[in-house]
């Protein structure tokens, strides 16, 4: 009887490993673009970008995939683009929204107790690199704020960016920085 349980556990472990090893992981290049609008100019700050990709999976269930893009922090400046590699279990076609949040690298500066800094963002671009049967496909999806104008986000707050161009798109010079 002990052999039966050992075989049963062995089969369970093997089937679990099979599912984990066959999970698709999609590679992305995430580009965050700060405002170029002279009316939305801001002082540079050192901060971290955090995104939450949202959408529906193949079964129609809502998903949320949270990623800290730059754990060490970068200087966030006016009219700049920042690119980071990222990975997720979901294909680009299923990602409908991206929630962007940023935090100061050192939020304990007394200056920020009175006035939290605000950074303006133009758009977020996801570029997917998919490899199927030896063929690499590049798809791009661009996400914008609600009114397609620069979105102001204060430290430790966030904003939802929605798809503003259809998918699949191929890289457009100037938009995929």
UniProtKB/TrEMBL annotation:
It comes from Tetranychus urticae. Residues 1-23 form the signal peptide. It comes from the Eukaryota. Keywords: Signal. This is Uncharacterized protein.
